[in-house]
């Protein structure tokens, strides 16, 4: 057992998990003079993004072909841009490379205990005074050990408990084929030449259905509510999130009526592909829930390789009956893309606010019921933007609170904020547990950044450094903005902002394109201009000759 810490020693903080949230939490602890000890149950860093051939209980699991939906400039850590030669949307192996570069650059690996599982986290008897925790761990050899920590950062992920609502589908037990959750799906090989029904149209459902449609005899995508679908690439072939997630656009959206914004956006997406015609039309408005990001889904529907279907009504052996009365026979497999629940069995049950294991958290980080704010849950959010920058800001705030540099408001105020946030999301997400996870990307980042003292002052930037100020307000809300000033200031932040579009272009500059000569350019401009004048004169003069 580790000795109880005295005031002269650095505070020791347990970090549970070495995924994207855990790695930045270790670094944030070091930045604030804390001593991190990270416990990772697997044999490697990366968490969710570490691909394994077989899923493991209580751990995240991904399929081999997964590619992130957020671009590298928007999802990277705020003081460590991804290498400029990395593609704009990385696959799981590339993001694992990035994590290793990050861990090596900041010397994080020496603080991680691999193949060590946390069994329990409990308050010490003198918690009201010390704020300390007893953490029980089990190592790879089965040895149990009890540690004392001044703080705990939970970075264990929330895609670990697949939801399999089998009772919602009468007769599913009569299906002779296989039934799995997307958590178990790895690649399309087992489904070659088969007829498969994919249930659920979230990002995973869309990805898996598209991949299967290239291998299966026929793929059916069943959805109860439909979805708005958009690709990763927008105007001029640029990354969706870098164009859409700007402070200027957020302000513009705040000023306009929500009904008008829904109309504009829905019209825009329907011009790309008519959602009603393609069988995608959802029951909700576009701003009410997250869109599905998929580059290939409409194309696969157009080719007939992927068939949209309504909700499954029942199974009759290998026959599937849908809500509209249509029937598909000889179904070989069903893949449930029906989401995830979360649970942290090692935490005290007193932190859960209901039988469903919901965690009541201030700003989705701190349990307000604790007498001392020395435990934080990181990354337990759902947002329309990248989670990594949000988790990093959470870690920066949480470590400062544990270090005693920042303070939380009274419990009563935190409870009111939690209730207000949940109430605002209930219309779009009727389940309170799910509603509590939702955050608006830029407002949430700014709210946490203000607590840390690193929120960019737009007016000051526009006056003192217009080149950066203009990009911060009108350009993408990239993570570097939160390193321009305040605690954790990074001297490279300004340059990172000024060169972010260069890093977007770099991986695509793989073929030299000759620039047109100035003579040729001016010749064609002059020719086109002269032609325009001639046509204009003809339009004016000809009517006179026709009368």
TrEMBL record:
Predominant location category: endoplasmic reticulum
One GO CC term on file: endoplasmic reticulum membrane
Keywords linked to the UniProt accession: Endoplasmic reticulum, FAD, Flavoprotein, Membrane, Monooxygenase, NADP, Oxidoreductase, Transmembrane, Transmembrane helix
Pfam families registered for this protein in UniProt: FMO-like (PF00743)
Residue spans crossing the bilayer: 521-545
Reactions accelerated catalytically: N,N-dimethylaniline + NADPH + O2 + H(+) = N,N-dimethylaniline N-oxide + NADP(+) + H2O; trimethylamine + NADPH + O2 = trimethylamine N-oxide + NADP(+) + H2O; hypotaurine + NADH + O2 + H(+) = taurine + NAD(+) + H2O; hypotaurine + NADPH + O2 + H(+) = taurine + NADP(+) + H2O
Cofactor: FAD
Membrane topology designation: Single-pass membrane protein
Single annotated GO MF: trimethylamine monooxygenase activity
Location(s) in or outside the cell: Endoplasmic reticulum membrane
PANTHER family reported in the protein's UniProt record: DIMETHYLANILINE MONOOXYGENASE
Function comment: Broad spectrum monooxygenase that catalyzes the oxygenation of a wide variety of nitrogen- and sulfur-containing compounds including xenobiotics. Catalyzes the S-oxygenation of hypotaurine to produce taurine, an organic osmolyte involved in cell volume regulation as well as a variety of cytoprotective and developmental processes.
Protein family according to the UniProt entry: Belongs to the FMO family.
Protein name: Flavin-containing monooxygenase
Origin species: Sinocyclocheilus rhinocerous
Gene that this polypeptide is encoded by: si:dkey-239i20.4
């Amino acid at each position: 057992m580790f000795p109880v810490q005295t005031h002269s020693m650095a505070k020791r903080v347990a970090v549970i998990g070495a995924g994207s949230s855990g790695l930045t939490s270790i670094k944030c602890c070091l930045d604030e003079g804390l001593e991190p000890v990270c416990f990772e149950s697997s044999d490697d860093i990366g968490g969710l993004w570490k691909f394994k051939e077989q899923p493991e209980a209580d751990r995240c699991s991904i399929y081999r072909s997964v590619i992130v939906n957020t671009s590298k400039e928007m999802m990277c850590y705020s003081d460590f841009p991804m290498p400029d030669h990395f593609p704009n949307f990385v696959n799981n192996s590339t993001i694992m490379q990035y994590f290793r570069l990050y861990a090596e650059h900041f010397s994080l690996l020496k603080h991680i205990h691999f193949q060590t599982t946390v069994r329990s986290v409990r308050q010490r008897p003198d918690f009201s005074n010390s704020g300390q925790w007893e953490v029980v761990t089990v190592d790879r050899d089965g040895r149990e050990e009890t540690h004392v920590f001044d703080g705990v950062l939970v970075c264990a992920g929330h895609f670990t408990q697949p939801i399999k609502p089998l009772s919602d589908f009468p007769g599913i037990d009569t299906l002779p084929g296989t039934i799995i959750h997307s958590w178990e799906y790895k690649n399309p090989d087992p489904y070659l030449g088969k007829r498969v029904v994919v249930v659920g149209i979230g990002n995973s459902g869309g990805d898996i259905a598209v991949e299967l449609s290239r291998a299966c005899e026929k793929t059916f995508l069943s959805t109860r509510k439909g979805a708005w679908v958009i690709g990763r690439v927008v105007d001029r072939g640029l990354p969706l999130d870098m164009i859409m997630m700007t402070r200027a656009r957020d302000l513009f959206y705040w000023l306009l009526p929500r009904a008008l914004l829904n109309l504009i956006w829905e019209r825009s997406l329907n011009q790309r592909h008519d959602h009603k015609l393609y069988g995608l039309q959802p029951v909700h408005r576009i701003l009410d829930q997250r869109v599905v990001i998929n580059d290939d889904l409409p194309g696969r529907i157009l080719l007939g390789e992927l068939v949209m279907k309504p909700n499954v009504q029942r199974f009759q052996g290998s026959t599937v009956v849908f809500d509209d009365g249509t029937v598909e026979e000889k179904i070989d497999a069903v893949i449930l893309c029906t989401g995830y629940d979360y649970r942290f069995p090692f935490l005290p049950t007193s932190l859960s606010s209901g039988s469903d294991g919901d965690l009541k958290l201030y700003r989705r980080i701190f349990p307000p019921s604790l007498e001392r704010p020395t435990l934080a849950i990181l990354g337990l959010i759902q947002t329309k933007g990248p989670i990594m920058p949000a988790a990093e800001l959470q870690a920066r705030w949480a470590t400062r609170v544990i270090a005693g540099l920042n303070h939380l408001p009274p419990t009563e105020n935190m409870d009111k904020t939690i209730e207000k946030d949940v109430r605002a999301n209930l219309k779009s997400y009727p389940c309170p547990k799910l509603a509590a996870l939702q955050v608006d990307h830029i407002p949430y980042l700014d709210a946490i950044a203000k607590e840390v003292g690193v929120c960019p002052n737009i007016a000051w930037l526009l006056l003192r450094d217009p080149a950066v100020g203009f990009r911060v307000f009108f350009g993408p809300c990239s993570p570097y903005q939160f390193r321009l000033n305040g605690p954790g200031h990074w001297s490279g932040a300004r340059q990172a902002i000024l060169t972010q579009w260069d890093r977007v272009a770099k991986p695509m500059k793989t073929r030299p394109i000759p620039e047109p000569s100035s003579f040729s350019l001016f010749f064609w401009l002059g020719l086109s201009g002269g032609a325009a004048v001639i046509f204009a004169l003809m339009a004016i003069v000809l009517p006179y000759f026709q009368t």
